[in-house]
Write a structure and sequence with these properties.
150 residues, single chain, mainly alpha, globular
Length: 150
């Protein structure tokens, strides 16, 4: 059942990206994002074996604006690293690595909206599950996909 659900979500995301003539990064984000979100929701972990290749792939897809992509990765990842440093119970190391990779596809004007939207998704997830311990990875992935695709 889980496989069917994941495949359905991925298919829907790819269909939307195709209809909107989205950049290649949208398809990469959808493919990695569905798997990473499922893992994070179930195990509260974002494995390096997926987050690091995702970050590298997204960075390489931004070769036409490499300087801005690196800057976005440093700022978005650095902001999450600061939260992790000051409030380690709020965010895991996987979230920081994921944020750095996602920052590569976010333009500078989208960094603040991505942070706000990802936090809103995480808060909504907490309200839906009625728990205080919810993963932040799905919010980061959903926000980034939405802002770079739509």
């Amino acid at each position: 059942m889980t496989t069917v659900l994941l495949a359905s979500v991925l298919s829907a995301l790819w269909t939307v990206a195709d209809v909107l003539d989205a950049p290649p990064s949208s398809y990469v984000l959808a493919a990695f994002g569905v798997v990473l979100a499922a893992i994070d929701l179930r195990h509260h972990r974002l494995p390096d074996a997926l987050t690091l290749p995702l970050g590298v792939t997204l960075l390489l897809l931004q070769f036409h604006r490499l300087g801005a992509a690196v800057l976005g990765a440093v700022i978005f990842g650095g902001a999450h690293l600061a939260v992790r440093h000051w409030r380690p119970h709020l965010m895991g190391g996987g979230d920081v690595k994921l944020a750095a990779g996602l920052g590569a596809v976010l333009t500078l004007p989208l960094l603040l909206p991505a942070a706000i939207l990802s936090s809103a998704v995480t808060l909504a997830l907490a309200a839906l599950t009625r728990t205080r311990r919810v993963p932040h990875g799905p919010g980061l992935l959903a926000a980034t996909w939405s802002l770079t695709t739509l």
